[in-house]
Amino acid sequence: MAEEDLFRSDHPVSASEDEGDDNEERRHHRLLEAVSSLAGRKRRKLTERTEASLQVSEFNLSCEGAREKLVLPELLGSIRASSSLGIVKKQLNRVKQKKSVELPLSKQESERVVREAAYNKTSKAVAKWEQVVLQNRRAEQLVFPLKQEQMGVAPIEEVLTSWKARTPLEQEIFSLLHKTQQPVTDPLLTPLEEASLRAMSLEEAQLRRAELQKARALQSYYEAKARRKKKIKSKKYHRVLQKGRSRKALKEFEVLRKLDPEAALKKLEEIEKSRIEERMGLRHQNKGKWARSRAIMAKYNLEDRKAMQEQLARNKELTQKMPMESEGEEEGDMAGEGLLPDSINEVQPSMDGANPWMLGKPSSEAKDSGMQEDPKDPRESVAQEDAGSEMSEEEILLQDFEQRRCTRQQTGSPEPEGAGEAEEAHLFVELLSNVQTGPGVEQPAQGPEEPLLSEQLGRRCTLEEIDALGQEEGAEEQERPWPTRTLQKSEEEGCAGGGHTAKKAPKQKMINLQAVLAGESHVIQCPAQPVSVQNEQEDEAADQRLVIKEAFAGDDVIADFLREKHKVEQAGKPQAINLVLPGWGEWGGTGLQPSARKRKRFLIKPVPGPPRRDQHLPHVIISQQRNILAAAHQVNEVPFPFEHHQQFEQSIRAPVGPTWNTQRAFQKLTAPRILTQPGHIIQPISAEDASPQSTVPTRGGSAALAPTPQHSRHHQRPHKKAR
Amino acid sequence: MRVKVLSRNPDDYIRETKQDLQRVPRNYDPALHPFEVPREYVRALNATKLERVFAKPFLASLDGHRDGVNCMAKHPQSLSTVLSGACDGEVKIWNLTKRECIRTLQAHEGFVRGICTRFCGTSFFTVGDDKTVKQWKMEGPGYGGKEEPLHTILGKTLYTGIDHHWKEAVFATCGHQVDIWDEQRNSPICSLTWGVDSISSVKFNPIETHLLGSCASDRNIVLYDMRQSTPLKKVILDMRTNTLCWNPMEAFIFTSANEDHNLYTFDMRFLDSSVMVHMDHVSAVLDVDYSPTGKEFVSASFDKSVRIFPVDKGHSREVYHTKRMQHVITVKWTSDNKYILCGSDEMNIRLWKANASEKLGVLVPRERAAMNYNQKLKEKFQHHPQIKRIARHRHLPKPIYNQAKELRIMREARRRKELNRRKHSKPGSLPFVSEKKKHIVAVVK
């Protein structure tokens, strides 16, 4: 269809030269075609060549318009958009747009292009080294050659695989190991174990595991519980426990007697044996510490008396030689024993008031306040350093030791199942906490009056004092009634040494002055002797001062210095520059002064300099003048890598030597920038080096330290050699 | 009451063995050690003085060549072996520990222009004035055997330099063009040219091994890529570059030794400006070699001295010279970063310490610690004038000293003139050009 259209458009142009009938015939033909096309049947008709022509088209085109030039746009314009000719149209369009092909580049030019491309490519490829290069330039330390073999610890598997058993012994051991198929390397299970593991199915294994877990958990709970129980300190609890246990044992015994008389007999024998042992021992005989203390208290306390009696009864019962029927009584006793301590525990708080042990606990605050209130003679305080005071101090310490020993003897190793145990323990604890130094129950009234030690962190006596203490201990052992003796003694000494007693007051705060000196009755009559000594010393000092004063009577050094400083300050101030010239712009001559305006105009005031460094130091003159001698050693300008003089100064100020730095720091500070190994060839850097290379800077000083760790001690003073 | 008794742990004060030093308990309280800065300053001063006292860098002179030493090569596997080629075509292999020649061979007629070892150290290559490239075995022939090269390649043109690839069996020669050769073949696998010129030296990049750098006599430095078989870029300097050396630790950095007494360090990515200009020599710089750590390089000059430059500093830290040392043609830094070898016109190879005052041999740990401490102190106080003065002081031969003075005066005059011109011309009309860019004429793409 389109092809036909194309021809149709051509016809009017070509037809102009042809004859009229031909034209008519053609028109007719066209009409026929149009009609046929209406029918919808596509018909291609080739034009026929009707006459001979010189120009024969190979495409069967008629050469009617041979002399005419065919113009492409004409052809294109006639093409309607249609599917079959779209490609052709496109191609033709392209042809239309294309310009003529340029001449090829000259050889030089083309080479240049190639070079440029190659250069760009290469420089891009080379630029990948940029990072490595920068890193190496900045690196704190570079270790050459770059390829360092790793000096790490080889994994055990490697060592073992490379190792072979050589000696017979080794071989034997190896054969043994192999027989049992003991794993030497990584797998921790033997083949047997693995096999057993494999034998179990997964569910089974899980079940088993769960069971095991449960058992383990239970066990751990039980253990924890037992531990907790074991830790319980309550006596009552233990008593109840024991009671329960004995009851249970009894029940069991009953059952046993019914079921198995022989076993019951055996059990009975055991019980008997324990009874015999009890008889052999001294338990329940009122001989223990607890019992003795109870004995003392029994006089005043009904409960104590009761407890003692209880114990005695028990003893009697235990030591009685009665074979079988004692069981019931025992049981009763047990119950009695169980009841008893409860009552004691109840009573205990009420007992506190009456207990002389409890009375001796004074409040430390009161003591301290007493200390502060204590009026101190200045002279006495001055004379503190004398040795006499230490004597009394030692005695008091000694006393303290003795008393503690006593209390320990009394309170130590309390009887476990005694009735008043809890009470005693309480007492003991209290004793320890207060470090009460009561001599004993014999003198209960004296308790509160005795000197007490307050626990403090500071050491109260020096080594010499302790030595002296050791010497005196033997002599003073026999002196039983401590407090009074020592007090007397101290008083005596105080009198003899001349008012030394009061000195101990500030030195050892633990002694309650009020208590010790008991008001006026203990006021010490201090003779004037130490005061005179003091006066003498003072006089000496005054004399010396006087002598100095006399010697320098004439000159007032301080004033001189101040004057000098002022002078220096003035000299250091920048001077005003006077540029006033008389006569310019006004009358000059003798007796004529330049005008005030002019003077003001031409007097150049200096910029006030930086504040003097000795501005706030009245006793110092700091010369801020440049020292020429020192200047020869000073840096004139901030050197290149530093940007500010402070940076530079800081770099200089930090010492690097071993005198100021620890060994490690010294090694790090002085690690050389480049480390090479003698006799090793350093190869040019390669791509393999470049990647581990990145770690080199981070290695930093540690690499430098590596070669000499074992000699670290030898670096103590290396500079000695250089000097 | 508790009696406290002084008690000490015997581990703290009892030595394990008799050889152990007594442990001295130290108190680092700064109040007990006053004047730390002055004391350290004095220590630093002493350390600096001692460094100068102990600075005796010259170790040995290897004599045996019968003409000036023209080129040298390091053995890639053995630190004690070094190869040298002389102007009479003789190649000698030296043992540095014994300081003697272990093998001599007549390699070429005329100069041995270049010598390089294979990366595995089994053979080496020489190029000479007789237009040949020869490969030799490192081991000499057996008794009575003849010194015969493994291969000989007869070229069409003169070869002026040779360098071996760092990893592959490929080497590059230079002359009229840069040729890349396979060891197995008699013709180059590719020839790289850029203009017609005589190229004086070619060097493979040790890191990016396919890169090459060459310097030609028309004052330029050309970079090549072996894989793409094309030149990459060319930079033209004021004067001719004699040789160049790549930094073995920084892939894109190379340093060129120039006729104008300077060395220029370039970043191959930014060729329009050098990274650093190293100026101290007073005559043409003939050779340069990097230390294997890539932090320093050594340069040999026509002014009969060898200088060591830090890569990032414009001036040398060390200058080596002896009375008898003539123009130094070639220089190498050994692969263990310890020694420097220089071959000079007067037929000798000299062995120097890279660190002039370093103590050779095994150091006791205390010694090493002391050395490190002294080094640190010197570094810390390096800016102080007294210390700087001592540390910088070097004796120079009179010609070099005078020449340096003259150069300084010239430079100052030039600077002053420029200053004056700038002062008397329109602001901005005379732009300030930094030293790093001043010597670069052009960069050709």
Describe this structure in words.
- The complex is a heterodimer of chains A (723) and B (445).
- The radius of gyration of chain A is 60 Å and the shape is flat.
- The longest helix of chain A is centred in the first third of the chain and has 30 residues, at 202-231.
- In chain A, the strands form two sheets. In chain A, strands 1-4 form a two-stranded parallel sheet. A two-stranded antiparallel sheet of chain A has the order 2-3.
- With 723 residues, chain A is mostly helical.
- Chain A contains 33 helices and four strands.
- In chain A, helix 11 runs antiparallel to helix 15, helix 19 crosses helix 21 and helix 30 crosses helix 32 (696-705).
- Chain B has 445 residues and is an alpha+beta fold.
- Chain B starts with 35 loop residues before the first helix and ends with a strand.
- In chain B, a hairpin with a 5-residue loop joins strand 6 and strand 7 (123-128).
- Chain B has a domain at 59-353: Methylamine Dehydrogenase, Chain H, CATH 2.130.10.10.
- Chain B has helices at residues 36-54, 365-380, 385-392, 398-423, 435-438; strands at 58-63, 69-74, 81-86, 90-95, 100-106, 112-117, 123-128, 132-137, 151-154, 161-164, 170-174, 178-182, 188-192, 199-204, 211-216, 220-225, 230-237, 241-246, 253-258, 262-267, 276-279, 285-290, 296-301, 306-310, 318-320, 328-333, 339-344, 348-353, 440-444.
- The longest helix of chain B has 26 residues, at 398-423.
- In chain B, the strands form seven sheets. Chain B has a five-stranded antiparallel β-sheet with strand order 14-15-16-17-29. A four-stranded antiparallel β-sheet of chain B has the order 1-28-27-26, with no helix packed on it.
- Chain B is built from five helices and 29 strands.
- At the A-B interface, helix 5, helix 6, helix 29, helix 30 and helix 33 of A face helix 1, strand 17 and helix 2 of B.
- Chain A: Residues 1-28, 316-451, 470-504, 684-723 are annotated as: Disordered.
- Chain A: It comes from Gopherus evgoodei (Goodes thornscrub tortoise).
- Chain A: Belongs to the UTP14 family.
- Chain A: Residues 711-723 have a biased composition (Basic residues).
- Chain A: Its main location: nucleus.
- Chain B: Pathway: Protein modification; protein ubiquitination.
